[in-house]
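Help wanted!
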Amino acid sequence: MLWIKNGIVVDPKNKINLEKMDIFVKNGKIVPESEIKKGDCKVIDASGKLVVAGGVDMHAHIAGGKINTGRTMRPEEMRVVRNIAGKFRASVGRVLLTAPAIGYEYAKMGYTTSFEAATPPVSSLHTHEELDSIPMIDKAALPVFGNWHLVFKCIEEKNIEKLKALVAWAIERSKGFGVKVVNPGGVEAWMYGGNVKNLDDQVPGFGVTPREIITWLIRANEELGLPHSVHLHCNNLGVPGNYQTTIESIKLAKGFKNEKRQVLHVTHVQFNAYSGSSWRDFGSGAAEIAKLVNSMDNVTIDMGQPIFGHATAMTGDAPFQFTLHKLLGARWSNKDTEVETGAGIVPIGYLPNNPVHAVQWAIGLELGLLTESDKVALTTDYPNGGPFTEYPYIMAMLMSKKMREGELKKVHQYVQKATNLPSIDVEKTLYEVIHMTRSLPARILGLENKGHLGIGADADIAIYNLNPLETDFSNGFEKVYKAFKVAEFTIKGGEVIVRNGELLKEVYGRTFWVDARKKVDLEVVMQDVKNYFQYYSLQLSNYGVEERWLKKPERLEVV
Amino acid sequence: MQDIVCTFCGSVCDDGEYDLKKKSVKKFCKLGSSKFAEKERIKAPMIDGKEVSYEEAIDKAVEILVNAKRPLLYGWASTANEAIRLGVILAEKLGGVYDQCASVCHAPGTLATIEEGVPGGTLGSVKNRADVVVFWGSNPMEAHPRHGMRYSISAKGLLVKDRKQRKVIVVDVRPTKTAKIADIFIQIKPGYDYAIFSALRAIISGNADAVPSEVGGVAKEKLIELADIMKNAKYGAILYGLGVTQSRGRDRNVENAIKLVQLLNRTTRWIIWPMRGHYNVVGAGEVPAWEVGYQYAIDFSRGYPRFSPAEFSAVEVLKRRDCDAALIVASDPVAHFPRIAVQHLKRIPVIQIDPYPNMTTLVAKIVIPSAVYGIEAEGTAYRMDCIPLRLKKIIETNYWTDEKILEEMLRRVEKFKG
Amino acid sequence: MAVVVELITGRTLDQGATVEEKLTEEYFKAVSYIELNQEDFKQLNLKEGDRVKVTTDFGEVVVFAKKAELPKGVVFIPMGPYANMVIDPATDGTGMPQFKGIKAKIEKTEEKVKTIKELLEAI
Amino acid sequence: MIIIKPKIDFEVSVEAELTPELATKSVEEVKKFKVYYGNRIVELGELFEIRKEGDDKKLVFEGDFSRVKWIGTKMVDGEIVVKGSVGANCGAFMKGGRILVEGNADDWLGIEMAGGEIIVKGNAGNLIGCAYYGDAVGMTGGRIVIEGNAGNYIGEKMNGGEIIIKGNAGDFIGTEMRAGVIEIHGSCGFVGGDMRGGEIRIKGSFELLPTFRKTEKGWVGDVNVKGEGVIKQI
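Answered by r_m:
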């Protein structure tokens, strides 16, 4: 039992803003005062300190074939030593971190949940093995659907029951959490060296278009009532002028409704918010996207904020990765995966004096600032935009125009004409930024017990050495940055795991997965699946992940 | 039992049928059948040839390992990921060296990946899409007997429906069994893979004029013909083997092949992939990559991982007499390492964990028998293309699994180290 | 009479099928031979089953001779302890010894082929 | 000047990142310098006899140091003399000063060296002046002279400086080289794969890759990377 005394609490889900209050923890949950015996409690004096829910990263690449190939191809990344073996594991990595390092660094920062944003269903066991090796945090993985021949087939047949059954089956088989869509149709086109450019381009060899893939998957997702919405990485990622595709894709959510959450989450939008027709007249389309998102009540986005320095691009968007390889002349890994999906990896770096990189950096911030705080979550699309360990930088930037002005001086001045960032006066409040990093991502993902400090919530709590009542967020940004960088306490499932940025205890969190099989009749699709497995290189009976193989699975049943 | 997963080669066929009565397997090749056949086992744990209990053997092994200044922990390609993970953590806690069988097999491909990445695909993409398959220095008919049928040569796929729709090319220094069933066999001079990859790149990028009339024993016209086939493929795959990684040029050969594939992707689609040998040699690299950042040749003497095949690969460590104890798991370095490396293994205390007696058993001070994954034990392995498959337990055994043995070792080491 | 050749080593089906039974006669048979091109075979005046001594800068080994389809001047020994007596242990900084493409001298010999255990003792 | 001599035969190798900077310290301080002996951190004085003579910024290694790695790593000035042979990674990331090895040098000599001079009287191993794992650029400045023979993969990704091999060199010389000079007085194997710039001069025989064009300057290439590197017979 734990008693966090006198903290200054910000808990947006429960509409608590800067209230001095006590939090009580029992059996890993937040409980009312009446349920605990104060004498038996470990007491944390949080006087004058900020108490918030543990951070929730809704989109990062933390486990599976992509990041692991990234590690393999970049030994220079692994030379940064973060922890020497002893009571805790050795942990290393500059931006690409080892599994222990991922858990440790999130925990040090007060983050307690992170979602792997893309796993090929056929390789999910690998993704889960890595997730199981990440200590400290809760996690889950999103299987990808947007280029899977079986998905195309269901949509070609316009058979929603089949599609729903397939989605439910595949999420169960991959022990996944939701429906990720990456460059729908484009990755299949890449198998012949192509891509799709418009929502209405036909996918080579199939009678489907990206528009249909997205729409049908939203429909299936909503009829299944999954906790999370469709999670979309749009077409044309990384291409100048792509903000129009993004706008069109966002509009596909019109006509769908869900009381609890959005029906479409568009991810790492920074990479999909470019105006212009080439890298020469490249600029920001962030304002238009933000305006559209603000006008709709069923779409959310996350930033995909680039951080200057090293990064590694890794996505299921294989054709984009090849384009990036040609553009940069950099190392390139690619993985065409059965008839399901693909992926690519290319090392990159964001340089402040590079006009394109400066604009990308500004676009991320524009999106964060111009989009309503209830609709944009904070991410770097780790490790695509850079390290998650710099979330405090983004938080501080969103809250301080002065900090942005200082940073704007250091970057290529092309941002002045190509983006709106210099003229944006918005300063998000602490309440908003806490929402963008806790309660909002939890709501977007459909995690009811995460991202808040209400009764019944998981006791994932971060305490920062920052008195918000006495902090000038506009001017004291350095202090704000430092405070969020190193949590004074990180509490995971009721246990103190970090104190002043030092690891105290190694714990292993749960892996959430969603079981929607009760919502469908699997038989409507199983014959197709069986027929289609002749094109797989493994047996259907050996496909998928059993719950008992996972370290700490937690099934969320959709009924 | 149906859909048994084979734990012999990197093809990891998963369609076997096991007959519990006959204790034999159907559908698998000669190699797979040999895996599932009954054979001589190490009967009990032994110290200096004397039978002891598992606990005694483990206690003694841990004593040797914690007292070593630099223990080498080698093998890992024929065990499950669960055991490998414990092995990596054990190496980390002991301040030893972790290395795995790839270092004498396909690790040059990892070095090439460091240089250029690896534009690849799964075996399913070869089966379904590849209309041209090039086996370069690889001989699946002997090393991966069902590869051709299941995934590459005659596999029936979605877009490439049968053998007739697929062109199979073998590039090798000798007419191998695979060369016999290829459409085109190109015989090259040993040690000239790199030069030939360079020549093909030059031809494809419009610099054929620079290429002399013969390269590595192959006439220029023949290279132009090969380049044409490559350019005109819809979806090609170079599947390379030890002919490339173990000969002159090693990783540079693979690097150059990858550059060729990068170039080909500018006009069509090609992938390249290694024909990995042991059933879980991929896991033996992937697991340490996520645990400590590197695939092999990892030294923990400073308490954090460092990578340097020039210093920390098992052969270099042994040649330099740079380890004072060795834990060998699921491997037989005495049979497969050069003589000078074996000499050092004879000098130092060797602890072996393996189901079967082999040449390493003959030099080991401590021998700990283990269960066979895929027959007597369950676990996870990664096929040559990194597709994960779950190995099944078919029959009961009293042998401890590698996982259990290593878990016990780790527990004792942690206790010892405080 | 000796000829100078290029030695390569590699997997074979038999070597693979017996690799988990290293202390058996079958494994011994699978790895203790050398394959030569017909002309080289003839030049050394060999019959199937004759013994050949292979000498390189790195060691020597006696193995059984076998005729095979190989380019002239290229010989093959299955991967394993016999091959490893004569391959080049230098990894040139890559960690990988040179198992293939080693200059070797081969000659007919009356010396016997060592058993696996004798071979190990001699290392 | 500090004189260092092994006290024992090492069971496993020693990693000692010793630079002439040490010569500015007292003998007692030098003896306390931490080095790795396998997985043990020990004081330099436990493994070596240490003597000080005069104040010049110089380290002298007496005896066999072939199992001592990382000598002279990151050194910026001063002098190192190894009377015997030296272990791997000698002079790695060196910026200035001079290293003289009277015996042989092991692999990874002068990794990514930026300045200074390394002279090896005996033979040297592989990967001289190369880029370390995953890095894009090798040696950028300074000079490495090997009086004997050298191994494979010399000057890979080199972008400046000079490597002179008086004997023979191995295979794959100057791969992906961008600038600088490699001179080989003996013979070697493949030269200049994917070379973009710089010059490789060879007195003996070598193997040319099929991707160079003969010009008045010598062989120019590698055409595969639109390279302007020059390979010359001298």
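OP: Thanks! One thing I noticed: DSSP finds 17 helices and 26 strands in chain A.
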